[in-house]
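Case study.
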Amino acid sequence: MMKKIICTLFICSVSFQCFAQDLLDVLEKETPKTDQIVTATFKGTRILNGHSIENRKDKELEFLISHRFGRVNLGFDELFGLDQSNIRFALEYGLNDDITIGLGRSSYEKTYDSFMKYSLLKQKKGANSFPFAVSLFGSVAVKTLKDFDPSDKRTFSESLFYVGQVLIARKVNSSFSFQLTPTYVHRNTVRINEDPHDIFALGLGTRIKLNKRVSFNSEYYFAMDESKSINARNSLAFGVDIETGGHVFQLILSNAITMIEKSFITETTDDFFAGDIHFGFNISRTF
Amino acid sequence: MKSIYVLLISFLFAYHTHSQEQYLTKNGAITFFSSTPIEDIKAENNQVLSIIDVSKRKMAISILIKSFLFKKALMQEHFNENYLESDKFPKATFTGDILNFDGVETVETKYDVKGVITIHGVSKQIVVPSIFKRNGETILVKGTFNILLEDFDVKIPRLVFKKIAEEINITFEFNHKPYN
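After joint prediction, the assembly is written out as follows.
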């Protein structure tokens, strides 16, 4: 009998609690448990030199202008490298939220490049959480600089370069993201027979958000089995993203002078720590 | 033993009336407008939760910031990342009392709802004139009001200052159904 009374009192007290419950708690309880896709892992479509997992959104067209100047250790006479300049300009377009295509032209070796980037998996929070995002990147570049012997003309297919990348990124929290980028580069033509046609590389990129509009990025590509004909070095870059409305400005310091994967990953020759550093920037305008 | 039955029955009865008094919606609509000579910005959220307790004359609203949809994806990203900081402050809420409440009629009746609105982690007292109407089982509540961005510590950088109005117009429409 006593037990039953206690039990009843207990039930009543529980029901009383429910009764006195705050309306906001009811709403909290009724909120559907949906997955949330993690956004803005990186601010731009590039970490610095290389691609990030970020895509252009559906039907958005972006005009991208990138510059890399000469070495800062050239000194005052060359205005710390600013007298020399490599430029790439490109149009990049979102076919939908997950696929971005682009066409670009670099002044370095008069190279045209085309690429496609596909967002395969997204980082998610919630019931079906997923710890990282995965994108696939493929690019074909054609070198049109006529640096061959007139008697030994290079054909179109001999001028082609291919790049395949898997971009794996995670936004750890709102101020830190990183990306691992296994890369494969194939060159149809190499300078000397000892140079490899296929080069594998691994990229590591990070983003540290300094405040709402500025972040500090770094990017390193470690290439295995590099070209013998040139003293190829791994590319390293540090820079800041500055965001203003519809633009992202990226200011970059790097030992690479080129802005497409096949070049900066496999053809960089400057030594960052010997002061062979190039100032550069990427500016994008979205329409 | 009898007294236990009485208690249990009264508990059931209490529970029953309690459920009749609350009305809830999970897909309420909130739209906001920012209008300047340069650019009109509009965003919609159709997944707003709202609840009315008729007997207590109370109302509560819960809004997931990430559920606001913009025409331009970049605007939506800026809204979440830079202005409302939805990672830090995922929800906006309102809780308040319906003043001089005299029941919900089948004709539109105007009541002031007074309470606390919390956006971007900042809470503020507010009175929102709202229209209440009963349609069969459902209770419709709708209205419009303005808020100032600076009241909620939402800072707009000078470069885009001219594109975003300081005062934002908010309209809402909730069709509450009996809850449980």
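Observations recorded in class. The mean pLDDT of chain B is 87. The interface with chain A takes residues 1, 4, 7-8, 11, 14-15, 18, 22, 24, 26, 47, 49-51, 53, 58-62, 64, 66, 73-74, 77-78, 80-82, 85, 87-88, 93, 95, 157, 159-160, 163, 179 of chain B (CB under 8 Å). We will return to this complex in the next lecture.
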